[in-house]
Specification:
Layout lengths: L21 H11 L6 E5 L12 E2 L9 E2 L3 E4 L1 H6 L3 E2 L1 E5 L14 E4 L11 E4 L4 E2 L5 E2 L10 E2 L10 E3 L7 H9 L4 E5 L2 E8 L3 E2 L10 E2 L2 H9 L4 E9 L3 H13 L3 E5 L10 H8 L1 E5 L3 E2 L5 E5 L2 E6 L3 H20 L9 E4 L12 E10 L6 E5 L8 H6 L2 E5 L11 E6 L14
Parallel strand pairs: 6-7, 14-17, 14-18, 15-16, 18-22, 20-24
Antiparallel strand pairs: 1-13, 2-12, 3-11, 4-7, 4-8, 5-10, 9-10, 19-21, 21-22, 23-27, 24-25, 24-26, 26-27
The protein binds ligand LQZAQKY5 and molybdate ion (MOO).
The site of molybdate ion has 9 residues, from helix 7.
């Protein structure tokens, strides 16, 4: 974060106990956060996942000239309409060659896919449709339209057309567009510096021996993977116990050289939960307690100019809070355009007899076609516990039940947000 830049407004306007609505949390994050990353120039090769800092336009037309879309024979359509259907071959143009020409009327040139159209030719007959006659002339079938099998200069990009816009996260096809329009480099945001910390006396690292009262640290590998994208660098701060001094020191040290710290655990008000007190002591808190389930005790604040997100300890709350809020925070700080994920309205394949109104709930779910009707339904993981990592694995997305809903009957329309819409892509295997 640049020195002297005030990213967050320094007031703690949320009273403890007063829970903020989901939409208001998103507005708060959008209003209080701005990009903190500088810019750098990188090669187009390998730039996937980086965030565009400066919009790019096409300097010239693409294709750069009219060219053949197929291997075959190029000729003037007007002469072909009037003249004989066999055309002597007047030359040959391969892809990459300079166009010769002009092609004399009533003649054709041998041409290959991607080769520039010679002057005097506007139409290409595909070689499979043509016959090479004994005298070497080409018999062209009747019925070809003017301009057939010809690609026009600029039909993909005209000079000045936008190629990528600022705030856009570069996808492989965007790299193709940059390269196709002649760009070898692109100006992108520098990587956002994120630190990840687990808290709790009961936590032991993945792979360590654990007693019956201990819990393996599931959150840290998940958060490191979620936060570790091309547009970020991620520091693993490991784990601290329920010790206010150790937590204070770890957070203060990390704040010196990170833009964002994400913690999990210790977010509520138990005697061993220290996040709230330590954050209040070291910095400012802007939010604690959201009217959602899971993830209610998430906190958002700052230590100096470093943003702090204190996620609850339950792994389900961690994933949900990351996808709903941390992703938006990272986007705002890293200079990305932040847009709400697309949600699909689908019939519920489950029932919920009673839901508390005034609270937004995000259930773990997936979609499945009804075997009889073929209609896609939303299914929910049968158990709701916030500690169930297996439910996260079974899910393909979140079922979003708004505040006013008090029950769900089978067939009721519900909003389903696929994980892929929140940046969690399924892998290569068919079943995610
Ligand atoms: N009296 C109240 N108790 C609880 C409340 C409440 O409002 N009043 N809220 C509940 C809700 S909702 C949640 S969520 C949790 C949040 O608690 P904390 O953020 O303080 O988290 P912990 O107590 O440290 O841990 C909760 C749970 O998660 C396990 N955990 C923690 N870290 C990890 C990790 N890195 N990997 C795997 N599992 C982890 C931890 O062992 C606990 O089981 O509080 C409820 N209680
Ligand atoms: O809301 Mo707590 O976040 O998991 O149940």
């Amino acid at each position: 974060m640049s020195a002297g830049r005030q990213t967050l407004i320094d007031d703690c306007f949320v009273n403890d106990g007063q829970r903020m609505r989901h939409d208001d949390v998103l507005s708060l994050l959008a209003n209080r956060l701005e990009p903190v990353t500088g810019t750098t120039t990188v090669s187009v090769v390998g730039a996937q996942g980086r965030i565009v800092a400066v919009p790019v336009t096409a300097p010239g037309p693409v294709p750069r000239s009219d060219n053949a879309a197929v291997d075959g024979y190029a000729f003037a359509h007007a002469a072909y309409l009037k003249g004989p259907d066999h055309l002597p071959v007047a030359g040959r143009i391969a892809a990459g060659a300079t166009a010769t020409g002009p092609v004399p009327p009533g003649r054709c040139v041998r041409i290959f896919t991607g080769a520039p159209m010679p002057a005097g030719a506007d139409t290409v007959a595909m070689q499979e449709d043509c016959t090479v006659l004994q005298d070497g002339a080409i018999a062209v079938p009747a019925g070809l339209k003017a301009g057939a099998n010809r690609r026009r200069a600029g039909e993909d990009f005209m000079p000045g057309d936008p190629v990528v816009r600022d705030g856009q996260t570069l996808r492989p096809q965007d790299l193709a567009a940059l390269a196709a329009t002649g760009h070898g480099t692109v100006s992108v945001r520098k990587r956002l510096r994120i630190a990840i910390l687990s808290t709790g006396d009961e936590i032991v690292p993945a792979g360590a021996e654990a007693g019956a009262a201990q819990v393996h640290d599931a959150n840290r590998p998940m958060l490191l993977a979620l936060a570790g994208q091309a547009a970020t660098t991620v520091t693993d701060l490991g784990h601290v116990g329920d010790d206010a001094d150790a937590l204070r020191e770890t957070l203060a040290t990390a704040a010196a050289d990170h833009d964002l710290i994400i913690t999990s655990g210790g977010a509520s008000l138990g005697d061993e939960d220290h996040m709230l007190a330590v954050l209040d002591e070291l910095g400012k808190r802007h939010l604690w307690q959201i009217a959602i389930k899971p993830g209610r005790p998430m906190m958002f604040g700052q230590i100096g100019d470093t943003v702090v997100l204190g996620l609850p300890g339950n792994p389900v709350a961690v994933l949900v809070c990351f996808l709903l809020y941390a992703r938006a925070v990272i986007g705002h700080l890293a200079g990305a355009s932040v847009t709400p994920p697309a949600a699909y309205t689908l019939p519920a394949a489950f029932a919920i007899d009673r839901k508390k109104t005034g609270r937004r709930e995000f259930l773990r779910g997936w979609t499945e076609a009804d075997p009889e009707t073929g209609v896609l339904n939303a299914h929910k993981f049968p158990r709701d516990g916030s500690g169930l990592v297996s439910g996260l694995q079974a899910a393909y997305g979140l079922i979003d039940l708004p505040e006013h809903v008090d029950a769900v009957a089978p067939g009721d329309p519900v909003r389903f947000i696929p994980f892929a819409e929140m940046g969690l892509m399924p892998g290569w295997s068919g079943d995610g």
